[in-house]
Predict the structure of AraC-type DNA-binding protein.
Amino acid sequence: MRDMKSIPVRNIRRGHPRDFGIQDLSEMMAGKGMVQELHRHDFFYVLALEKGAGAHEIDFVPYVAGSHAVYFLRPGQVHQLRLKAGSTGFMMQFTAGFCHHTQLLRKVGAVNAYVDKEGSVLRVLADIFREYQQQQAQYREVIQASLHIFLITLLRLQQQPAVDNAHTYTQERLEALLDLLETHIHTQKRASQYAAMLHLSLYQLNTVTRAALGKTVSELINGQIILEAKRQLLATTAQVSRIAELLGYEDVSYFIRFFKKQTGVTPEVFRRHHS
């Protein structure tokens, strides 16, 4: 049952510390285009374009990879990237262990795409790249401090107005729920289970999700199941029955009906149309 191709998982590239790396895109691409087929990472991934043209798809949401674009991916998200020759900027990766600012990572990671028209993100990344290249005494500590500035800079780009305590509470509970969904969706599919993990009543949790996203907890659960199913359908050759099993469904027919109800097509039709 395990002989099918699994979703490719990339690690921080060899020859560098296993918890951090940053590359200059123009050096990395060497005058050629870049094509990265569908895969996922086990680390946080940043792509910041000073100049660029291409396409970037993150969890099946398409983006135009143009100048001044910044992309921030959480571990586990799937993406594919096509960049044309001549693109400039930086590609950075780091583990959660290297960055100690968990709350900032959550807030920044809630958004995958940013626009850096003023170049503020690129300036911070240029400092990080220079420190990484020179590797003077305590360079890792300097990079970690700069990484903190980088995250704050991204947070400012969200251009969110100052929020009151009620809004802050709602956002924090939502972020905690989204983290739990990514971790437990294969085994936990009832809204009441997530409410219990967050020490809230189901009514309270539904109030949070409706206020933040206009959706119920059950709708978010269904959306996460479909996202995981799409990841498996497009990034692996696993049979639908195996994907259903991986997602915790003993009855493949029920899974197929559920997928069609949510998307309008069967898993096989989705795979055939999007492969």
Residues 1-5, 160-164 have pLDDT under 50 and may be disordered. The beta strands are 9-10, 20-24, 34-41, 44-51, 54-58, 61-64, 69-73, 78-83, 88-94, 113-115. Residues 69 and 115 are 5 Å apart (CA to CA). The chain is about 50% helix and 20% strand.
